[in-house]
Amino acid sequence: MFIELALDMSSEERIMFMVLGVMNFGLLIHLNHLEVKRRAKRGDKQNLGMKQLPVKSKFMFKSPRK
Positions of the region Disordered (predicted)? Predict the structure, then answer.
């Protein structure tokens, strides 16, 4: 069915279909990233396979005094 649909599409429709697919994929990744950040903030043990980053000391961000 999808093959017949793809053959019937014009080039503009094909491009729009691909753009929608890429946007859908990007949205999935973005929402998953937000969920991972939310779980990391709450301190859940099951962190969707991502390890929590160690907290950097505040001295790393200060520029050295001259």
Answer: 42-66
Phi, psi of 60 (to 5 degrees): -70, -25
What lies within 8 Å, CB to CB, of 52 at 6+ separation is 40
Q: Which two tokens stand for residue 42?
A: 């709450």
Half-sphere exposure of 48 (CA within 13 A, CB side): 13
pLDDT above 70 as % of the chain: 56
Q: Is the pLDDT of residue 5 over 60?
A: yes
11 vs 57: which has the higher pLDDT: 11
